[in-house]
Amino acid sequence: MSFLTSREFNLDVSLAKRAARAEPALIAECGQPTHVMMRIGDFRRLTVESASILEILAMPGVAEPDASESGPQLQ
Question: How many other β-carbons are positioned within 10 Å of the β-carbon of residue 27?
Answer without folding.
Answer: 21
